[in-house]
Recover the amino acids of this structure.
């Protein structure tokens, strides 16, 4: 009989590049046979979703997408963001004319959704698209081949008047099944909409739980929320419960399917911005990039497990790490949201917050976010900073313009060095590279060097080159009508590569 050629090793590599996990064990090999060192391979496929930008007719939105230059997989590839489909009407309709009209509208929507709003053509160069008013849709998309590793997208919206006034920025997120949002609200002064976006061709079902300072809030309508295929729904959190709570934690999970989730928050007299999900529950969290001129900083934290958490609160400032006066520790009761007013904790210096267990042997997992305000009186503006993971090997953030971006870098452990690359501009310019040293326990805030000959928007890519972990965020700011509008996006590792274990035995050829 002829030899059978089995490409199990190649198959494992492909599986790992898509899912992030793969293993191959030779038939008959001992279970404890030492595996060879894992190889790093670029991902071959990634997905992103962006929420509908705004319900204001005054909104001006800019979408920017980018894949960093570097080693990719396939020489070919695509990276496209397309409009989500409108949510079908749930009402039963019997009128033949209305049914036909609805079918024609759905057909037009599907045809429109097949046309990309923006598509990356090559690594290292961002692409930009713009939309005005309240009709801009949510976006869903996929990147493949060489355009998949590190693919990122940013949605920036400016609203100059009305209840949604502000500069609203959000990083388009990868779909998932579990999200935590400390800092959300059902208070009468807030309009917080939870946006759920489904990128897949089958429907998803989500559950929403709300936790205030006294525990779970009463809700009979937060379970079993359907998010149709390739569609997005927005839910006003205050409609889920009769209880008005200023600062709470929203927990979103899916029973089936996967979604992207983010909260749009508008606050009377203060402004609006997006609240993105906190990093997964952990005993130690970092919240990077509090602006030096912050006039109010509120910490919102939640302990999702069965145990209370005793947390040490520290500010990593320009020169050292220290505990804010009167707020050195925080006790967080199980399943209850705790809030601390840190006021103007940074005092004209950039800073980042470090949360760690008071007792190292009792590291109770928590989630957390910061509500940050700049300005006073009727000139206030608000933004949110969630706990985030380290930059790791690489992280990128698109949609920077000359002199409107500030990059914050903090090293909670050992001193570290990072390389920051400003990409080519969307309409022209050559990349620029700078290197920074971040001392242990400190935060630095820098204005990135823009690309030479910049035209259009550019992306920033941060890479850790040596030392301990670095956490980062990017602040966009501009002044409109005397208001210092701003928005902050964190930069966790882009997951552009995965570790692929080598086979314990070469199975490329097996003979019968």
């Amino acid at each position: 009989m002829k030899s059978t050629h089995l490409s199990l090793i190649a198959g494992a590599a492909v599986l790992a590049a898509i899912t992030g996990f793969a293993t191959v064990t030779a038939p008959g090999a001992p279970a404890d046979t030492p595996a060879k060192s894992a190889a790093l391979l670029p991902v071959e496929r990634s997905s992103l979703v962006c929420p509908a930008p705004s319900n204001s007719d005054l909104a001006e939105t800019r979408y920017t997408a980018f894949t960093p230059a570097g080693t990719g997989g396939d020489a070919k590839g695509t990276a496209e963001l397309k409009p989500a489909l409108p949510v079908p009407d749930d009402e039963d309709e019997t009128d033949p004319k209305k049914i036909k009209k609805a079918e024609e509208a759905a057909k037009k929507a599907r045809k429109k959704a097949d046309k990309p709003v923006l598509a990356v053509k090559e690594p290292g160069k961002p692409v930009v698209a713009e939309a005005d008013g309240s009709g801009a849709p949510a976006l869903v998309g996929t990147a493949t081949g060489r355009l998949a590793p590190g693919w990122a997208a940013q949605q920036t919206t400016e609203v100059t008047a009305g209840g949604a006034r502000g500069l609203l920025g959000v990083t388009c997120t990868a779909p998932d099944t579990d999200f935590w949002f400390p800092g959300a609200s059902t208070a009468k002064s807030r309009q917080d909409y939870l946006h759920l976006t489904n990128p897949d061709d089958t429907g998803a079902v989500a559950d929403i739980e709300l936790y205030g300072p006294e525990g779970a809030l009463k809700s009979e309508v937060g379970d079993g929320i359907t998010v149709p295929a390739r569609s997005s729904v927005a839910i006003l959190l205050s409609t889920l419960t009769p209880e008005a709570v200023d600062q709470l934690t929203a927990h979103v999970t899916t029973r089936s399917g996967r979604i992207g989730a983010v909260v749009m928050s508008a606050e009377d007299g203060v402004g609006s911005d997006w609240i993105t999900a906190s990093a997964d529950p952990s005993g130690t969290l970092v919240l990077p990039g509090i602006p030096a001129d912050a006039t109010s900083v509120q910490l919102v934290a939640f302990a999702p497990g069965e145990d209370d958490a005793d947390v040490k609160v520290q500010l990593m400032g320009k020169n050292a790490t220290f505990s804010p006066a009167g707020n050195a520790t925080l006790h967080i009761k199980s399943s209850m949201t705790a809030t601390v007013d840190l006021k103007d904790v940074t005092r004209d210096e950039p800073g980042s917050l470090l949360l760690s267990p008071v007792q190292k042997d009792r590291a109770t997992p928590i989630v957390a976010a910061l509500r940050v305000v700049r300005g006073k009186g009727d000139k206030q503006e608000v933004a949110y900073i969630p706990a985030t993971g380290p930059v790791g090997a690489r992280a990128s953030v698109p949609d920077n313009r000359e002199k409107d971006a500030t990059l914050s870098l903090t090293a909670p452990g050992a001193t570290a060095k990072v390389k920051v690359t400003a990409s080519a501009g969307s309409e022209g310019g050559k990349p620029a590279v700078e290197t920074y040293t971040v001392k242990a326990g400190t935060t630095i805030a820098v204005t990135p060097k823009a690309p030479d000959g910049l035209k259009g928007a550019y992306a920033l890519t941060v890479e850790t080159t040596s030392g301990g972990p670095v956490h980062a965020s990017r602040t966009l700011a501009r002044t409109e009508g005397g208001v210092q509008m701003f928005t902050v996006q964190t930069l966790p590792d882009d997951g552009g590569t995965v570790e692929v274990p080598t086979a314990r035995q070469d199975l490329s050829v097996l003979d019968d």
